[in-house]
Specification:
20 strands; 687 residues
Amino acid sequence: MIQKKILPRILIIDDLFGRIDPNGRNHERENLCGQYMLKDVTDDDATKNSSLIVKHPIAETVFHRGQTPKRSNIGETVKNDLEGTLEFISKGWDKRSDTQQPWSMIFLDLCFHTGKVTPKSNAGVPGMPQAHPDDSNHNHYFGLKILKEIHTRYPDPKLPVIILSSQPKEEIKRIYSQFGALGFLPRQDKDVNVQEMERYINKFGLIPDPTQQIVGYSLPLLLALREARKAARNRLNLLILGESGTGKSFLISYIKNYLQRENKDNFVHVPAPMLGADLWRSELFGYVKGAFTGATTGKKGLLKKAHKGDIFFDEIKDMAPEVQAGILTVLEDKKFIPIGADKPDQVDVRFISATNADIEAMTMAGDFRIDLLNRLRQNKIITLPPLRKRQEDIPLLVNKFIEDAEAQTGDTRNRQIEQDTIVKILNYEWRGNIRTLRDCIHKAVISSEVEFIYPHHIEIPEDEKAYKITITSPKDGEQIITLLPTLAPEILVNHLTPEQTDYIIKTKIKDSSIDDVFIVKTLAELPPEILTKHLTSEQINYIIKTKAENFQLDEAYIAKLLFALPHEIITKYITTEKLIHIMEHHQIERSKKALTGLLPELQKAFGQLIGNCGKTTFELYNQTRAISILCNKKLTTPQAYDATKRIYSVHPETYNNFKNNDEITKPFINKAEEARGITQVTNWWDK
């Protein structure tokens, strides 16, 4: 099976490239994508209307203006939007879905033009405002405000940021360095090419393995891959640590792919156990002709074969003491003497070592030389995370292993994995890591003649059954909390016991202090009934107050909670305008019983709105129109009639306007009149 190459996913925050012009295009964005070989995957009209095709892109790119509105016409005012920008960043970082690749890197502009779009400014660049004098003052750069917030909100691991700007670098390089930006790409410099941007992405970006030999988007894995690319760029010795089955051999292959030397094929793999006490010298150093009986020809040793390249010692924990001493000598002197030779051979080789053992403990016990260890970890230790520390990658790994097993057996069923099956797999720690999980999935594929893999098809290995995740202690609870965001909502509801829910809620929500990431990824996926059962009224108040500050933030979450919250909380924290907007734009599928139960609360909220006759007729028209749309789409017929009566009684002019002019509400009102008559409607209301 041909694997699709996975590209880095970058975010460019820039007012010029992120906007949509009045014609639904952005020619400047197209030019930038052509210059830097970027594939535009932004979900907006400018991307949909673009005719640009980049054949060999270096990255998938999402553009964000950082301002409101995104599409600006003559006469409209463009404003910087810090909170909206940070929320957009968050959706691709800490609030992303399990299968969504996180931002590999952010390229951030400095100067964002604000103000009114005038005929003159629109003639220069369509949709761009005339700009305020402070916009180009380096002390007021909006881009630096965004950078400071990124630095504060995402300290560990840091979200990689590169400044992409046409502004002077010198006057602000100290500031952007202070807040974590890793470099500066001058946009106006025509000599800066695609290789420069690609260099930044490869050096600092959190990017997955493009070949998908190493599968996953979890941050611990992406950080390890970044360190591996860094190691490939230098000649310092490297030590790789990781439990058995975590994929150390795949990481070695990954490093080999990124080696930049001309003779990168000089890569010699040496399993340490094969270097026995009798043969290690001849294997590593080689020998000359006549060195011993039977040496009719000379033999080049493994170190000489790796000259100007790398030698990889696999499982150094099994290295005999005399081998350790011999390798230490080579590390110190950069030379060795082949058996039977009169003079030493010089060697230039980088040592890469790997082990699944606690090598530090071995040095303390005297089983491994500390001086050798210090030499082998000259560069930096790369630790591959165990599978239990990157559980969000398990669904991706399972699908990969299914595809691999089918390819090996020539099976073309294209099997699908059921969510219940994923839950069963996630209930275990997989101490054998990727290797054990792969063997388990392969066995399920080979032994089942089905197209859908259910839980009973998965046979958990005996030595893994002892490591089932259960909530019996705070430590176990934290493991469940880590696991939860990877599951589908219905799985959370069906498989969490009340005790588990109790524990998680009590652990994560204390003294009205809400973990936003946990709320968005987990609690927001649970039915409101569960939330209101376990949350105190103070906690509910806090959630709504936090989430309702900007009604465009997490609307779906608020919409779900509306069905379970008392009227007092709704009216206390959510304005009626926000309530209508949320209900109109989020078609939450609920039973008629739930809608009926909500109706009295809606009527109270609508009464406050419609009864406010101080509003202009135009405002009232828009708001009552939203109510009628809501009633028409969401409520039963009697409930819709009741809403019609309310509109007519408060403002007959608006009612008639709906009836005669509004295409959406006209059929609805005519139906109400046919059934009960407008006279009956008014009489009912008067009563």
